[in-house]
Amino acid sequence: MAPSYDVLIVGAGFGGIHQLYSLLQLGLTVKVVDKAAGLGGTWYWNRYPGAMSDSPSHLYRYSWDQDDLQSYPWSDNYLDAKDVLAYLEHVVDRHGLRKHLQFNTELLSAKRNPEDYTWGVETSQGPFQCHYLITALGLLSEPNWPNIPGRELFRGDLYHTSRWPDKYDFTGKRVAVIGNGATGIQLITRIAPEVGSLLCFQRHPQYSVPARRRTVTQEERDQINNSYDEIWNHVRDSAGGMGVTESKTNTMSVSPAERERVYQAAWDEGGPFRFCLGTFADLYTDEAANHSACEFFRSKIAQIVQDPEKRRKLTPTDFYARRPVCDSGYFEQFNRDNVDIVDILETPIVGFTSDGLKTSDGTVYMLDMIICATGFNAFDGPYKKLNIVGRDGVTLNDHWRDGPSTNMGMAGANFPNLFMINGPQAPLANVPPAIEGQVGFITRAISHAEAHHKDHSVPRKVTIESTKEGEDEWGAFCNLIRDMTLFKTVDSYYFGGNIEGKRRFVYVFLGGLNLFLQKLKECEESGYSSFHPF
Ligand code: NAP
After folding, report:
1. What are the pLDDT digits (tens) for 265-297?
2. Which CATH superfamily is domain 4-142+378-525 in?
3. Of the candidates 364, 363, 408, 433, which has an alpha carbon nearest to the alpha carbon of residue 530?
4. Residues 379 and 240 sit within 8 Å (Cβ to Cβ)
5. What InterPro entries does UniProt report for this protein, alphabetically (predicted)?
6. Phi, psi of 351 (to 5 degrees)
7. Which of 32, 170, 178, 523 is the most buried (most CB within 10 A)?
């Protein structure tokens, strides 16, 4: 017989671990499975050189373990990937969660059984049965490999940043990096001094702010420790959840000199969110405002990059409306003789060769290693290959045929007792507090549902399921907010624009963490009005 649990959680990253901890407090039986060989989710997979979180260190953690917040050591204002992984390992051990985790176990399919109100789940390690199924698959977990013909021809090393090998050596080699998002920028900056030569194949240039990574003094740490309650309240009351004092001033309401001063202060202080949220309130809603920020960025790139041709290629002309990024000397790397840039909008890559990459102008770039920093099939990507069959035989893929609609990124009509953490249309914000909002909601919803099942009859006829109206309303709200912003002007993964042929859709809630948490609260206070009665 399949092992049976009250709740099966799929994914042992930030979301899955917190969800496990919370549901154990309710006295439920819970198992977490993950296809990886260890815990950490994003931080298990993304081990490429230079991988770092760009959220402030003291906010890239759980808020609920007050003692741990006070004592857990961290040295810099940002955390390396390995530090985040070590933190999650520590949390799991500190709270005795390890025995509930099972690795190397990939979710394949799940089917709702109407007779006994359970989910029958198939994994690579056999079946499970559960009353509630919670997927914490990660919003950025399905690698996007570029669709370049002839991959099998290449005789050198070929990597994707999110599937980084244990053993690698690029010392002195001819290396190419395709992609210059948050990942590519970190990777390029880190490896440029070590490789023989580095060719960066760029589709769109980036506006990037210095990260200004530094050691945090004991005095600063004491100050943080003494005001954590206030800090978390501020985080939850902000759009980004990044600890930034978010500006309420409109850009054009101040003089050009004042704009320059404000931008320069953010540039000097460092960090992408200090710049995009802390300078002016309307950077993403007003074209002139956004344009002024772009001008500032372009002037910085012009000051840094010496070679005119490299500078031209590295200078963006579109809106500042991709995921904001930061760097520790990205543009500076292009002043090295061993680093060059290929603009693949001008000369697209036409294929791999046995020795490298060929572009449309006939050039063959001879390479020993090609690294794809090409991001992810985000949000619904990891769900696409699953066969999830809900009520009345409806599959999730069928239900999402016109785009992955959800109720607040967490639930869907026809899928009773199925919750997603950071599913499509979840909020774009600092991930740990955004996850905490969702996990809190899911835990209380399950607790509420369970309270309706006091007689403990078998089968437990308790269900909680989003209404179709709840899902439609959330989709409309996501669209409304998208239409109010300049994000829509750029083809990014927020809208499926990073992948050829992917459906254009609003895959993310752009209204901010504070508004998202308010919506969760309203739903709970209404007695879960956008969910079917239990
Ligand atoms: P990304 O932002 O989607 O960037 C992927 C890059 O690859 C882009 O430059 C993209 O070009 C390019 N690309 C994609 N497909 C391509 C193709 N077929 N041919 C050529 N170029 C292609 O992915 P990412 O850099 O991995 O970052 C994803 C997200 O992960 C970030 O936005 C962030 O949320 C998270 N992340 C965070 C950190 C951090 O510091 N906290 C670090 C890394 C990642 P276009 O711009 O033209 O699409």
Report:
1. 999 999 999 999 999 999 999 999 999 999 999
2. FAD/NAD(P)-binding domain (3.50.50.60)
3. 408
4. no
5. FAD-binding_Monooxygenases, FAD/NAD-bd_sf
6. 175, 165
7. 32
- Report residues whose beta carbon is within 6 angstroms of any ligand 1 atom: 52-54, 140, 144, 146-147, 178-184, 186, 203-204, 323, 344, 373-376, 493, 498
Per-domain boundaries in the chain = 4-142+378-525, 144-206+322-374, 208-295
Buried b (16+ CB within 10 A) or exposed e, 43-74: bbbbbbbbbbbbbbbbbbbbbeeeeebeeeeb
- CA dist 128 and 31 (Å) reads 10
Task: Indicate which atom in ligand 1 lies nearest the CA of residue 492.
Answer: 48
| Strand 107-113 relative to strand 118-123, pairing | antiparallel
Q: Which residues contact 91 (CB under 8 A, 6 or more apart)?
A: 17, 62, 65, 68, 97
For the cut 80, the answer to whether the pLDDT of residue 202 exceeds it is: yes
Q: Whose CA is nearest to atom 37 of ligand 1?
A: 182
The dihedral formed by the CA atoms of 376, 380, 386 and 390, expressed in degrees to the nearest 10: 170
Å from CA of 349 to ligand 1 middle: 17
For domain 144-206+322-374, give its CATH number from 3.50.50.60, 1.20.910.10, 3.30.2350.10, 3.90.1150.10. Answer: 3.50.50.60
Distance 6 CA to ligand 1 centre (A): 37
**C-alpha span between 231 and 507 (Å, rounded):** 29
Which residue, by CA, sits nearest to atom 43 of ligand 1? 183
How many angstroms is it from 38 CA to the middle of ligand 1?
A: 24
How much distance in Å is there from the Cα of 132 to the middle of ligand 1? 33
Task: Report the pLDDT value the prediction gives residue 454, as an integer from 0 to 100.
Answer: 67
**144-206+322-374 and 4-142+378-525 share a CATH fold:** yes
Maximum pairwise Cα distance, the chain: 75
Percent of the chain predicted with pLDDT > 90: 96
Alpha-carbon span 194 to 359, nearest angstrom: 25
Residue 332 CA, chain-centre distance (Å), reads: 27
**448 alpha carbon – ligand 1 mean position (Å):** 39
CA torsion sign for 309, 311, 314, 317 is negative
Ligand 1, atom 15: closest residue by C-alpha: 374
Report the amino acid identity of residue 387: N
With a threshold of 0.90, does the pTM exceed it?
A: yes
Instruction: Give the end-to-end CA distance of the chain in Å, rounded to a whole number.
Output: 28
